[in-house]
Design a protein that fits this description.
By secondary structure, the chain is α+β, with helices and mostly antiparallel strands. The chain is built from six helices and nine strands. The chain has one domain.
Length: about 190
C-alpha cells in the first residue's frame, strides 16, 4: 500500500498547473539565457529596448561560447589581444528562449572586419523583426532573411537588463583564477 501511495504522490508532484499557458510564459523568464550567436537555422528577434547597454570586454572561447570580463581582468597584461569590445543584445528565439547576442564593435583604433560590421548593422537596424542571419562566404559577411509569414512579435520583459545581467553573471570572468584563464596561461 505504501509503495502504491508513493507512486501516486510522485505522479501528482509532476502535474502542471491548470493554466498551462501562463505557467509556460512565466517559466520563460526564469531560464538563464546563454551568451551566444544565433544558430544557422534559427529565427530570432532583437529587443528594441536594449540600445543603450555598455560596451563590454568579451573573450570568445572555442568550446565554451563567450565569456564577459570585468574591466580589471581585461586590463591584465597577460590577456592583451585575447578579448575584444562587444555590444550585448537581448534576443528571443522563435522557439521561445532568450539569449544574449554579443556583437563585436570597433575599439576606436581600427575598423571592423566585414563580418563584424555586417552583423552589427543587421542587429541594430532590424530590431523587433523575426530574422535569420546567414554567412555569405563569397562576400565575407553576414546577411539576413526575414520570416516569410507574419509572426506575432515577442513579449519582452519589463526589465530586459535583468535578463542580460543574469546571462552575463553566468558567463563572467571576474578574477585571474578562473579555470578558462588558467588554461590560457598554462596553469594547473
Amino acid at each position: 500500500m505504501k509503495n502504491s501511495e508513493n507512486k501516486i504522490n510522485f505522479l501528482a508532484s509532476l502535474a502542471l498547473p491548470t493554466d498551462i499557458e501562463s505557467f509556460i510564459k512565466a517559466s520563460e523568464f526564469k531560464k538563464t539565457p546563454s551568451v551566444r550567436k544565433n544558430k544557422k537555422e534559427e529565427f530570432f528577434c532583437v529587443c528594441p529596448e536594449c540600445s543603450e547597454l555598455p560596451i563590454v570586454a568579451v573573450m570568445k572561447a572555442e568550446d565554451k561560447g563567450f565569456y564577459v570580463l570585468t574591466p580589471i581582468v581585461a586590463s591584465h597584461v597577460s590577456l592583451k589581444g585575447e578579448w575584444n569590445p562587444y555590444q550585448l543584445f537581448l534576443c528571443k528565439s522563435l522557439t521561445g528562449g532568450y539569449f544574449v547576442f554579443p556583437v563585436k564593435v570597433s575599439d576606436g583604433n581600427r575598423t571592423l572586419d566585414k563580418w563584424s560590421a555586417s552583423i552589427y548593422e543587421i542587429i541594430t537596424e532590424n530590431r523587433n523583426r523575426w530574422m535569420r542571419v546567414i554567412s555569405v562566404l563569397d562576400d565575407g559577411k553576414y546577411t539576413m532573411k526575414f520570416a516569410e509569414d507574419t509572426l506575432e512579435m515577442p513579449e519582452w520583459p519589463e526589465a530586459p537588463e535583468e535578463i542580460i545581467s543574469e546571462a552575463v553573471e553566468a558567463h563572467l570572468i571576474s578574477n585571474l583564477d578562473h579555470p578558462y584563464l588558467k588554461t590560457l596561461r598554462g596553469k594547473a
